[in-house]
Amino acid sequence: MLAACHAAVLAIFPDIDRLHLAQVARQFTYDHEKVIGYIIDQQDIGRPYPKSEKSVKRKRQEVSPGADSPVEKRMKFDDDPNRLVGKDASFVKLYARAGKALLAAGFPQVYAQDIEIALKSNNNLVYPAYKYLEDKLEGKDGASMLRLKPRPKANAFDNIFDQSARDAEKMADAEYKAAKAESQDRKSQAMQENEEKLNLSRAKAEGLTADCECCFDEFALNRMVHCNGDPLHWFCCVCAKSQAEVQIGLSKYDLTCMSMDQCQAGFALDQRSLFLDEKTTLALERIEQESVLRMAGIENLAKCPFCPYAAEYPSVEENKEFQCENPDCEMKSCRLCGLETHIPKTCKEARAEEGHSGRHQIEEAMSEAMIRRCNKCNTPFIKENGCNKMTCTASGCRNIQCYVCSKSCDYAHFDDATRGGKKGQCPLFDSVDQRHEDEVKAAELKERLRVAQENPNIDVEVFQFNFSERVKQDEEQRKARNPPPPVRRDPPLPVPNVPRPRAANGRFFAVHPRMK
């Protein structure tokens, strides 16, 4: 069950960190569908899965050091339109000069003034300026931008800034190459789509088309695959590959006919090669290998929890570690808990040790919840008593802010009407101990849930804080010494204008209004 879950996930995420995979799989009791769904959901909210060190190293070998993939470059340049903001004038000038030179080499048929317009229209950024020029040339007004005599095209100029030591020139060069790569990909895709349309048109004219028996769309026969049945059933490559991916998700490897005629025939190797890529083929082979091993019933068969590799091993009492011999894995794991080896520590000791960093994160969150910072100079402070109108003690600052919401304020910011405030606003006085206690508890709960979710293999009791009776007594004594907040009193009611009484023969009596 464990190995089948890992194989299904690795078929979709082959570069996932094996330790992370083991933790997530254990959290969902090795249900591969839930594991895959969880990983996808995490990616959707901006939390990509950690990748194995080996895949990262291999990627760095395939791509030059420090280089991003074309897709990553496009995303970076598209998502950062303000990348020149904050740069000094010399950097911007050098960047603009390099960008203009690169665009002039890339568009030799375009007037220099049109290149300048493209740059100015896009905040002097090379990447969007390249796309701007392409769109203009493809539009109806493109002819007006063409020179009668194009500049000599210098392909070597595309690489003139490769070895530049200036950051501005390297930045302009990276944007230019990313835009050029995207343009080539788009043109290649357009050519491929046009070729497919022409191929389908020729096939229709020659009567060499058929409907896919899965999606029922019409395709040219040279773009389809068929089963080994009698009669043959034809399918498009997209539907055939989708079936393979579904089978991998179900930890199955058999690929059978999808026809509604209840045909149970399979697909020959030459047909499978038309719709299966290397990664999908490898995943199917791994699942088949595991199935064969299970049916063989080999005694003392041990499996790597991070990949499909398996081997005969002595009992767990004799050897608690498993050394994977798969060259793409080579992980050493604990056969008791299925995680990376932690010998000589026991599984419980290893989980407790992993929990220490989680406890530290919770403690940091609790401290941060209590500490305030000056919104002007960022000086940290904590209030012991008094009102919530705080004055920063840092030299040269003296900023005044609210202890509740951290906004700069005066007395009118609070709920005390006698000092210009209004009811419902931040309290001028409250129990600082109660406020700290509530905020710290809320931060502790939130951070504990987050840490527990990221470390499902660690016992949640490790993250609990148990204070001694002595500490609790000291805290109660400290609270008792802290004076309670003053009771807020509403302003006195206005005194009505009552006529003053007059004295007669030593006695006071009220004066009737008509007697005034």
TrEMBL record:
PROSITE patterns: TRIAD. Keywords: Metal-binding, Repeat, Transferase, Ubl conjugation pathway, Zinc, Zinc-finger. Residues 70-79 have a biased composition (Basic and acidic residues). One of its GO terms (molecular function) is zinc ion binding. It comes from the Eukaryota. Residues 49-79, 471-516 are annotated as: Disordered. InterPro entries: BRcat_RBR_RNF216, LUBAC_E3_Ligases, Rcat_RBR_RNF216, TRIAD_supradom. Residues 208-430 form the RING-type domain. Residues 482-499 have a biased composition (Pro residues). The keyword Transferase applies. Pathway: Protein modification; protein ubiquitination. This is Ring finger protein. It comes from Immersiella caudata.
